[in-house]
């Protein structure tokens, strides 16, 4: 059974067990933050928790690695 | 045949190649590994004047600081403002902080002796400059000239710009080529033997950093350059800049000048354009041992958190180590080797190689083209370590 999370207010379906990063990817979202000076896009890169490129804020908490954090029903994801 | 062969594609070798090419010389750079594969690629990118005692190294640092600025400006004139020189050049300034009044008194004394642009900062004023600093520090000294570069990009940029901008021919870069010996003609060095055949040149610059002693030995001369290991701890990218300057504790200055072989650490903390925070610095003489030392990393982390309590919440994502090339008197080796005509040295910069690279390359280019160097190279001469040396 799929459930939903929201990305910037938009409903996105999630297959149980998917990470936030996987759900974003499946929804066509490829980047969710930018570099500080160059403004270059950052999203999933290594996908296995090593590179810390995919940091994202979920439910207002401090940035987590989207590639490792399992999505939970009703999660509110905010991109910057 | 090149006018100059540079052994070593770290930042010092790259700067030697750049300034030699700018002086109209044809240059070949040889390295057994990649660009910035040695100590250059394992540092913080310090361009510091603040940590130097008055004397020849400080003069070299001041000259080099101006040259780094010129290099960044030159690049940005073509690439556009905000390109940061193409190597993340940040003229962020350095803030040295003192834990006690006694240390602050010594910092103020040092600042007066150095004669550099600086601002004396009282304890209460510290957080006007660094809002997230811990409470209770006695004071500090701000050095606006201190800067930072991304060292791998800086080395690569110097090689690229040297190849594209100057020279009768081109700057040749030969990577994955190991120097195995020297070619002599009479009393002179006229090239190097390599894993890929002989390479001939009018002069050979030994810019092999921590391995400069080994390259010198291949030529039959001694340089007492040994490795001094340092670890750096890297945090995850922080969403907002936490640290504005390069911030370090006064103990760093005494550790840099220390002759102890034992582990010494001091807090050196700075942000990078990628958002990560680099946390150093440790010094120990353990040869070329790359084993990660958790106790050293724990000390670095604790010291950084003592300085910036907010770092307690940041995760460390990796660490790396490198080997500073140090000489017994902590000065680099720069100039012609009087023991072997045709051989020049540009190595042994200890932890200051990034900062001192442009001045080193500039001065050597002056020597190679028969000009009088802007600074007296006597304190850096290669034969100063021998017992009969004056």
TrEMBL record, chain A:
<dbReference type="InterPro" id="IPR036010">
    <property type="entry name" value="2Fe-2S_ferredoxin-like_sf"/>
</dbReference>
<protein>
    <submittedName>
        <fullName>2Fe-2S iron-sulfur cluster binding domain-containing protein</fullName>
    </submittedName>
</protein>
<dbReference type="InterPro" id="IPR042204">
    <property type="entry name" value="2Fe-2S-bd_N"/>
</dbReference>
<dbReference type="Pfam" id="PF13510">
    <property type="entry name" value="Fer2_4"/>
</dbReference>
<keyword id="KW-0560">Oxidoreductase</keyword>
<dbReference type="GO" id="GO:0016491">
    <property type="term" value="F:oxidoreductase activity"/>
</dbReference>
<dbReference type="GO" id="GO:0051536">
    <property type="term" value="F:iron-sulfur cluster binding"/>
</dbReference>
TrEMBL record, chain B:
<dbReference type="Pfam" id="PF01266">
    <property type="entry name" value="DAO"/>
</dbReference>
<dbReference type="GO" id="GO:0005737">
    <property type="term" value="C:cytoplasm"/>
</dbReference>
<dbReference type="InterPro" id="IPR036188">
    <property type="entry name" value="FAD/NAD-bd_sf"/>
</dbReference>
<dbReference type="InterPro" id="IPR006076">
    <property type="entry name" value="FAD-dep_OxRdtase"/>
</dbReference>
<keyword id="KW-0560">Oxidoreductase</keyword>
<feature type="domain" description="FAD dependent oxidoreductase">
    <location>
        <begin position="3"/>
        <end position="366"/>
    </location>
</feature>
<protein>
    <submittedName>
        <fullName>Glycine/D-amino acid oxidase</fullName>
    </submittedName>
</protein>
<dbReference type="GO" id="GO:0016491">
    <property type="term" value="F:oxidoreductase activity"/>
</dbReference>
């Amino acid at each position: 059974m799929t459930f939903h999370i929201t990305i910037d207010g938009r409903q996105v379906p999630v297959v149980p067990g998917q990470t936030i990063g996987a759900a974003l990817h499946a929804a066509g979202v490829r980047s969710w933050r930018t570099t500080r000076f160059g403004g270059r896009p950052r999203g999933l890169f290594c996908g296995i928790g090593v590179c810390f490129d995919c940091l994202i804020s979920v439910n207002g908490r401090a940035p987590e690695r989207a590639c490792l954090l399992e999505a939970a029903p009703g999660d509110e994801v905010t991109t910057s | 045949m090149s006018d100059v062969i540079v052994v070593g594609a770290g930042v010092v070798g790259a700067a030697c190649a750049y300034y030699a090419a700018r002086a109209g010389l044809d240059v070949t750079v040889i390295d057994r590994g990649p660009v910035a594969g040695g100590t250059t690629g394992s540092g913080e990118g310090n361009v510091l004047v603040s940590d130097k005692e008055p004397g020849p190294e400080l003069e070299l640092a001041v000259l080099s600081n101006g040259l780094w600025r010129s290099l960044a400006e030159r690049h940005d004139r073509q690439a556009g403002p905000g390109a940061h020189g193409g190597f993340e050049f940040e003229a962020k300034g350095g803030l040295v902080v003192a834990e006690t009044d006694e240390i602050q008194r010594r910092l103020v004394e040092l600042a007066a002796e150095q004669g550099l642009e600086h601002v004396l900062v009282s304890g209460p004023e510290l957080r006007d400059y660094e809002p997230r600093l811990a409470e209770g520090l006695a004071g500090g000294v701000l050095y606006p000239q201190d800067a930072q570069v991304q060292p791998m990009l800086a080395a690569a940029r110097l090689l690229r710009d040297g190849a594209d901008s100057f020279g009768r021919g081109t700057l040749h870069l030969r990577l994955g080529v190991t120097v195995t010996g020297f070619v002599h003609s009479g009393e002179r060095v006229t090239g190097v033997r390599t894993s890929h055949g002989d390479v001939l040149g009018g002069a050979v610059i030994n810019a092999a950093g921590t391995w400069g002693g080994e390259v010198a030995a291949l030529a039959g001369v001694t340089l007492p350059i040994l490795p001094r290991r340092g670890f750096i701890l890297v945090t995850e990218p922080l969403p907002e800049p936490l640290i504005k300057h390069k911030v370090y504790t006064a103990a760093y200055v005494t550790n840099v000048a220390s002759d102890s072989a034992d582990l010494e650490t001091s807090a050196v903390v700075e942000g990078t354009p990628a958002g990560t925070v680099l946390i150093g610095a440790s010094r120990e003489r353990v040869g070329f041992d790359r084993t990660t030392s958790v106790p050293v990393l724990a000390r670095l982390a604790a010291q950084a958190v003592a300085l910036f309590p907010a770092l307690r919440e940041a995760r460390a994502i990796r660490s790396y180590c490198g080997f500073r090339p140090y000489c017994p008197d902590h000065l680099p080796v720069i100039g012609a080797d009087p023991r072997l005509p045709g051989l020049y040295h540009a190595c042994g910069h200890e932890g200051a190689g990034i900062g001192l690279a442009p001045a080193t390359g500039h001065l050597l280019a002056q020597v190679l083209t028969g000009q009088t160097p802007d600074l007296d190279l006597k304190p850096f001469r290669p034969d100063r370590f021998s017992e009969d040396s004056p």
